[in-house]
Amino acid sequence: MIPSVLPTYNRAPLTFVKGEGAWLIEESGRRYLDLGAGIAVNALGHAHPALVSALTDQANAVWHLSNLYHIPQQQALADKLVEATSADTVFFTNSGTESCELAVKMARKFWYEAGFPERVEIIGFEGAFHGRSTAAIAAAGSEKMTKGFGPLLPGFVQVPWADLESVKAAINDKTAAVIVEPLQGEGGIRPLPAGVLRELRALCDQTGTLLIADEVQSGIGRTGRLFAYEWEGVTPDIIMVAKGIGGGFPLGAVLATERAASGMTAGTHGSTYGGNPLACAVGCAVIDHVSEPTFLDEVNRKAGLLRQKLEGLVAETPDVFEEVRGVGLMVGLKCKVPNMQVVSAGYDAGVIIVPAADNVVRLLPPLTISDSEISEAMTRLETAAASLTQTALV
Ligand SMILES: *Cc1c(COP(=O)(O)O)cnc(C)c1O
């Protein structure tokens, strides 16, 4: 008999009932160090006092208003995002997949209004993840995500990851945009090699193609800059945001330059919940916190500390791990044993890590994790790795 919750997930046998900072507490009372943060969502950890009060204060005022009216919290958050980025305008969504939908619609509408209605194609990369809507799975194109869900939305092509020559060959007079994660998350924490995003920007500029940066996982301070594209000094035309921006409250956004957004006039797009007061009040608190002068410096410092310790772990357990990769606090460990074994051994040792493609486990801790929590996490990861080394030796 089908379970009452549609069984699209293989869930771990863990039920958490409380979160405190970088910790999750199970029903049994057992405490786990959370290096998953709800897959890069709980950017400020669990139950951060500033977020709790932003949410409860707003809950006591008003929960929901239609976008038929002005929403001050939405206006405030849009102003903060425009101030902090190269973008000029923001549309709020509830998830990454909805941000993908709008990014695709916006790029196509731009070319339609510019008098090139044939420019509809979106070039993406193999191994990408942009969400679960029909547009988002078509953009990623992998068999794993698209099989059985055809006919797929037309107008998407994929090229090998980071392969500029293939992008060059794929751009033609039908191309609307290139969509790229500066750092693939689900694909196995695969950063674009240095310079590639800049080259992509140049290729787009030469051909008028719009550049869409999917920063759903890499954004909001995760890599040590507000957005990962900043490391390359480029400015995307359209930026997809979700996950960390709500700190655990469902919230997403599409940021765009005035030019890229020029086709999106009144009536062309909308959302019932997108930009609601509760989500935006929390989003404002997240952005205020991440924008504090020393916050990102601390993320970078802690990322360096974690990286160094992880390099040590890989060196000590070469039969379990192959390499460390990633940027900031978006880190992957490429495994030599099946990655789900590492995830399970982590649970046994009281540390939560998240699997990704390419046999990688991801570490996406709250950006607020402390030095001593990083040390404790390492002790637990060493225990997990040691248990697998023993298994490997048997
Ligand atoms: C998670 C993710 C998405 C999809 O976000 P949802 O909120 O799950 O719809 C899109 N792109 C990237 C890079 C992601 O990591």
Explain how this protein is built.
- With 394 residues, the protein is α/β, with parallel strands linked by helices.
- It has a seven-stranded mixed β-sheet with strand order 4-12-11-10-7-5-6, sandwiched between helices.
- A hairpin with a 2-residue loop joins strand 1 and strand 2.
- The protein has helices at residues 37-40, 49-61, 72-84, 96-113, 134-140, 143-146, 164-170, 196-207, 277-290, 295-316, 339-349, 371-393, and strands at residues 16-20, 23-26, 31-34, 89-93, 121-125, 156-159, 175-180, 183-184, 190-191, 210-214, 238-241, 252-256, 321-327, 330-335, 351-352, 354-356, 360-363.
- Helix 11 (339-349) crosses helix 12.
- The two termini are 39 Å apart.
- Pyridoxal-5'-phosphate binds at residues 95-97, 129-131, 181, 185-186, 214, 216-217, 242-243.
